[in-house]
């Protein structure tokens, strides 16, 4: 049992981060915190990919003497792309927040909501 | 000319005329000339089609395969021919009438009126010539939509609400029930063709036939079987020519026409009698006939009274279809034409009274007949034809319908028919009686009222003479109706 | 030469045009380049479709790396139809965009606006073309990120919050999709759709596969605004610039539906859908979506929001078709994807034309406008009929197949719900019609004239398409049936 838990520790980390990020996105009214939560959420998925791409004692896939275990590099390549996507999302989100701050003078969701409703 | 082209022309010409009407909007005389020429041309075409059909020509044309195996198809068969003939002839007469009526009313939106009217007529002809149930449904719905602006024509709140009821009930029944019935038919048989003897026999479990048939009968809202009749009185907010041609002839007849088509060519009369599909539905039709007559008696507004009378008379035709005997089908088909001529006369008269005397309530019409003798005379003739008295055309259809109930052994329904005829007398005849013999309430105004505009009078005279004429010479309609009924 | 690289060109062309557009001087030039690009794409997409209508498949190995190791662009009838739809709507939106965008977007942002528009087009076309699930994720994010930007460019400040909300929900959806793809990759070691399908067959019962499937479905459901994950959609459509409402309403959710079809039926299979509760969940959500979203539409007081809720209801129809999981059902879904794009495109164009004249799509501003803008009004009327499903319009064809599929499935309740949905559509469309035509105009001093021809022409092109595809269905139904054959979905036999 313990071995199962410890043996899959990477999954536990991923799940923990994922839930923390997801919770933040849903629960926080501050837009910056929302974006931060989103980032954590996405990062947890990156970790998932990276950790499953690694094989114990595996090495990079270059054929050489003395190495017979190779790690698949594809997940890592994919995650590079996903990181780029993630970065752009965060950047765009932050840019939107700047604009929202200009337009509303606040970045608290409930205050924005109040302003929209009072019109 | 090629027969196929003739059918297409009959349907397409009214649509084409819309362009002319819109372009000539600024010159009312030219605009009306377009309407009249088109109506005359359509009338001539329909009569030519009839004569070709009479000679035994087979006329059918496929336009496009919309869905695999389902064509937009036109075909001339006896019942459709009968319907098209009535619509073609009466459009011309109504066009003459509406010019006098609309100008007498100084209506501000006449261009829209004539344009939409032409579209509605084109759709009606499309319905009449539809070569399969799919095409029929397409035109049926276009007819609903195209008459909406006509019902809402006045643009007042009352018109808006009436039009909403109108389109609401017609769309709800056709989408909710009729479309479902058509799809079930298609799913069961893989076809929607009109075929003699029907397409459902042997493919549909007879136990389900009643349910499917009910979906059709109530789904064809235009046939105004109670409880889905409310749209017809609601449509009376429309200008009178619309009520006359569309809501006494084209739209409502499109409904009962569809009922007859479904009965004869989709179910087949044998299947209906053998499966007992209509056993309980006939009571809805019988109930409609009686109840609508009773309601008509309580209406003081002349157009509303006529509307309920139409609901009742449509019940006759539906009953004819439901009984599914030779005689009843003959009577039903014949009633399409006889009722059309009689009812349009009544509406013409009602419109003439409205335009000349600005009166719509029967209780106000005392003594009007003495200053408007032609109008009230025409009304009298129309009433007598509806009641079914000789020497007017209405007698024939009622006769055969009554024979149909006898043939089916439905004595109770025979009683219903006879009772309803008595009620017809009770709600129609008081109008001319009051007009000719009643004393005007205030006495003074009557003298200032003159007869309706000449074009209205001409139209009325023609249709009332037709009622008379059809008693002595019902042959064209009789023959078509006979062929329809014999098509079992 | 062009023919061999057709499938790639369709994506590369707008991708190359985008940065060029961004550096063009402000004015008409960016618009012109975008116009040319979209029309070229349309030509290429039509060409591509003509190559696959017979049921053949174009396989294109990106960079010469053979599938399943390299990225494969795999074009069959379904991809080609979706690609044609996207590029067609883009090509028709562009003429419409000229005036509305000049009015709604500050002049110094014009070239960037069109650049982002092209990027969005790249993303959507890429999704349609690719046969690789990870590549699909990347394109999905390209299109999503650029659509957040486009929505945020709306005139009112609420466009910003709408875009932000969409960004949050969209990113969560995309991340879910990524998790799902990752889980499938763990199980199979491949990303190619066909290869995935092969390798998943023996391990369909694995819990990881089920989990991955669930993540994928939920992720896409967020993107396609499947009820009850639709919350981002109404505001996003309402506050975005008119041309963008048109483009996104007609394409974005439809592409998401396409992704769902691909994932569910190509990567997984009909058997998997029927063996798991997936089909029932689709049916359940579809039924609720149709009814609740339609009712919500009835109570809207803003035309664009009304149309947005109507979109949610219409998407639920497509989901119903998937839930029936039969050849007829999926045909209905595909046909409706195409037809709904036509009608919603036209309706949002009309809404945009009204906004162009009076500056708002709120009902109280629209009273009586129909009399002053007869062509726009007529367009709304006809597109509304198509939405209802009146015969003679494209909408009827979709409803026909959908109800037929429900009858074949012997789900009478579903058939009734579809028809009930049509009737609810009558209610909200009629509300709109009466308001536009019968109410007196609010401000008598206001002289409203018909929208300019640049707005009317694209609108009426779509209206005519609505009627054409309601009468001649060779393209829509024909291609959809070919596509469904290739998906290998069997009809239900009793």
Nearest-angstrom radius of gyration of chain C? 21 Å
- Please report the distance between the alpha carbons of the first and last residues of chain C: 49 Å
- Percentage of residues in helical conformation of chain A: over 70%
What value does the average pLDDT of chain C take? 89
Task: Please trace the helix and strand order of chain C, writing H or E for each element.
Answer: HHEEHHHHHHHHHHHHHHHHHHH
Biggest chain pair interface? B-C, 28 and 30 residues
CATH top level assignment of chain A: Mainly Alpha
- Structural category of chain C is mainly alpha
This entry's quaternary arrangement is heterotrimer
Number of strands of chain A: 0
Main sheet characteristics of chain A? none
Tell me the structural class of chain A: mainly alpha
Continuous helix count of chain A: 5
Whole-angstrom Rg of chain A: 20 Å
Question: Termini separation of chain A (Å)?
Answer: 59 Å
Structure description:
The complex is a heterotrimer of chains A (119), B (488) and C (494). Chain A contains five helices and no strands. Chain A has helices at 2-7, 9-27, 31-53, 74-104, 109-118. In chain A, helix 3 runs antiparallel to helix 4 (74-104). The mean pLDDT of chain B is 85. Chain B is built from 21 helices and two strands. Chain B has 488 residues and is mainly alpha-helical. Helices cover 76% and strands 3% of the residues of chain B. In chain C, 76% of the residues lie in helices and 2% in strands. Chain C has 494 residues and is mainly α. Chain C is globular. Chain C has helices at residues 6-23, 29-52, 77-104, 110-129, 133-152, 158-188, 193-200, 207-223, 233-239, 242-267, 270-275, 278-298, 303-324, 327-358, 363-366, 369-372, 374-388, 394-408, 412-437, 453-471, 474-487; strands at residues 58-61, 72-75. Chain C has 21 helices and two strands. Chain C has a domain at 277-494. A two-stranded antiparallel ribbon of chain C has the order 1-2. Chains B and C meet through strand 1, helix 5 and helix 6 of B and helix 18 and helix 19 of C.
């Amino acid at each position: 049992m313990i071995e199962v838990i410890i043996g899959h520790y990477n999954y536990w980390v991923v799940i923990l981060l994922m839930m923390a990020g997801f919770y933040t996105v849903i629960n926080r009214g501050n837009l910056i915190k929302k974006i931060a939560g989103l980032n954590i959420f996405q990062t947890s998925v990156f970790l998932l990919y990276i950790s499953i791409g690694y094989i114990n004692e595996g090495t990079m896939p270059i054929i050489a003497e003395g190495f017979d275990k190779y790690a698949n590099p594809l997940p890592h390549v994919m995650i590079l792309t996903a990181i780029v996507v993630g970065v752009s999302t965060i950047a765009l989100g932050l840019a939107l927040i700047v604009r929202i701050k200009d337009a509303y003078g606040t970045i608290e969701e409930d205050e924005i909501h109040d302003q929209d409703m009072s019109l | 000319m090629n027969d196929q082209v003739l059918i297409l022309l009959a349907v397409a010409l009214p649509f084409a005329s819309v362009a002319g009407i819109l372009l000539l909007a600024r010159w009312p005389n030219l605009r009306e000339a377009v309407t009249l020429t088109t109506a005359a041309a359509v009338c001539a075409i329909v009569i030519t089609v009839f004569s070709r059909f009479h000679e035994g020509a087979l006329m059918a044309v496929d336009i496009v395969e919309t869905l695999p195996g389902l064509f937009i198809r036109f075909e001339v068969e006896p019942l459709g021919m009968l319907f098209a003939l009535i619509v073609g002839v009466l459009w011309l007469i109504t066009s003459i009438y509406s010019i006098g009526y609309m100008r007498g009313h100084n209506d501000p939106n006449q261009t829209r009126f004539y344009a939409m009217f032409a579209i509605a007529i084109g759709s009606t002809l499309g319905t009449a010539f539809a070569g399969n149930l799919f095409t029929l449904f397409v035109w049926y719905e276009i007819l609903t939509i195209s008459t909406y602006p006509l019902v809402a024509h006045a643009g007042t709140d009352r018109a808006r609400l009436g039009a909403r009821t109108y389109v609401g009930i017609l769309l709800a029944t056709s989408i909710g029930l009729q479309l479902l019935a058509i799809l079930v038919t298609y799913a069961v048989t893989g076809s929607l063709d009109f075929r003699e003897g029907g397409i459902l026999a042997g493919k549909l479990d007879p136990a389900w036939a009643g349910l499917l048939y009910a979906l059709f009968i109530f789904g064809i809202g235009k046939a105004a079987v109670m409880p889905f009749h409310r749209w017809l009185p609601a449509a009376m907010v429309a200008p009178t020519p619309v009520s006359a041609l569309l809501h006494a002839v084209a739209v409502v007849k499109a409904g009962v026409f569809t009922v007859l088509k479904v009965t004869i060519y989709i179910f087949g009369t044998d299947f209906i009698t053998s499966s007992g599909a209509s056993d309980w539905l006939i009571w809805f039709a019988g109930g409609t006939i009686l109840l609508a007559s009773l309601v008509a008696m309580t209406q003081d507004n002349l157009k509303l009274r006529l509307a309920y009378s139409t609901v009742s008379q449509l019940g006759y035709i539906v009953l004819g279809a439901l009984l599914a005997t030779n005689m009843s089908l003959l009577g039903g088909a014949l009633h399409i034409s006889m009722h059309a001529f009689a009812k349009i006369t009544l509406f013409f008269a009602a419109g003439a009274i409205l335009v000349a005397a600005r009166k719509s309530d029967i209780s106000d019409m005392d003594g009007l007949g003495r200053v408007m003798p032609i109008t009230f005379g025409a009304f009298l003739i129309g009433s007598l034809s509806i009641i079914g008295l000789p020497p007017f055309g209405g007698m024939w259809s009622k006769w055969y319908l009554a024979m149909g109930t006898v043939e089916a052994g439905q004595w109770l329904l025979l009683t219903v028919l006879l009772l309803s005829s008595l009620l017809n007398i009770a709600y129609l005849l008081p109008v001319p009686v009051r007009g000719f013999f009643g004393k005007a309430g205030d006495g003074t105004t009557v003298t200032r009222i003159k007869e309706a505009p000449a074009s209205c009078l001409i139209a009325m005279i023609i249709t009332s003479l037709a009622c008379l004429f059809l008693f002595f010479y019902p042959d064209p309609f009789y023959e078509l109706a006979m062929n329809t009924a014999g098509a079992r | 030469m062009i023919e061999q690289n057709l499938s790639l060109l369709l994506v590369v062309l707008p991708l190359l045009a985008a940065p060029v557009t961004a550096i063009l001087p402000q004015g008409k030039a960016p618009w012109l380049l975008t116009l040319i690009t979209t029309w070229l794409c349309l030509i290429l997409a039509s060409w591509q479709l003509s190559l696959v209508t017979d049921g053949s498949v174009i396989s294109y190995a990106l960079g010469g790396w053979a599938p399943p190791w390299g990225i494969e662009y795999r074009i069959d009838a379904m991809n080609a139809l979706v690609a044609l739809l996207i590029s067609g709507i883009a090509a028709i939106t562009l003429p419409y965009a000229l005036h509305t965008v000049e009015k709604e977007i500050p002049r110094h942002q014009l070239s960037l606006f069109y650049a982002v528009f092209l990027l969005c087009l790249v993303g959507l076309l890429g999704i349609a073309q690719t046969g690789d699930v990870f590549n699909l994720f990347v394109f999905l994010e390209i299109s999503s990120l650029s659509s957040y930007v486009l929505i945020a460019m709306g005139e009112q400040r609420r466009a910003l919050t709408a875009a932000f909300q969409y960004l949050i929900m969209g990113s969560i959806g995309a991340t879910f999709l990524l998790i799902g793809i990752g889980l499938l990759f763990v199980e199979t070691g491949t990303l190619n759709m066909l290869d995935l399908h092969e390798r998943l067959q023996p391990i369909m019962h694995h819990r990881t596969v089920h989990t991955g499937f669930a993540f994928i479905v939920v992720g896409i459901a967020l993107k396609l605004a499947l009820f009850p994950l639709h919350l981002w959609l109404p505001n996003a459509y309402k506050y975005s610039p008119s041309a963008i409402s048109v483009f996104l309403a007609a394409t974005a959710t439809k592409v998401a539906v396409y992704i769902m079809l691909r994932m569910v039926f190509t990567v997984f299979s009909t058997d998997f859908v029927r063996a798991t509760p997936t089909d029932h969940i689709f049916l359940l959500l579809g039924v609720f979506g149709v009814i609740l979203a339609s009712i919500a539409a009835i109570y809207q007081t803003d035309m664009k929001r009304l149309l947005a809720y109507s979109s949610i209801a219409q998407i639920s129809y497509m989901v119903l078709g998937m839930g029936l999981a039969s050849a007829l059902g999926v045909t209905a879904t595909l046909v409706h994807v195409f037809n709904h794009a036509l009608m919603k495109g036209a309706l949002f164009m009309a809404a945009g034309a009204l906004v162009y004249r009076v500056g708002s799509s709120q009902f109280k501003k629209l009273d009586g406008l129909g009399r002053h803008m007869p062509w726009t009004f007529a367009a709304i009327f006809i597109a509304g009929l198509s939405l209802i499903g009146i015969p003679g319009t494209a909408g009827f064809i979709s409803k026909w197949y959908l109800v037929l599929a429900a009858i074949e499935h012997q789900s009478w309740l579903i058939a009734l719900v579809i028809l009930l949905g049509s009737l609810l559509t009558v209610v909200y469309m009629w509300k709109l019609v009466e308001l536009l035509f019968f109410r007196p105009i609010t401000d008598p001093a206001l002289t409203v004239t018909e929208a300019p021809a640049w707005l009317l022409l694209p609108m009426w092109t779509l209206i005519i398409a609505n009627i054409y595809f309601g009468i001649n269905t060779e393209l829509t139904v024909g291609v959809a049936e070919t596509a469904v054959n290739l998906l290998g979905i069997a009809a239900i036999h009793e």
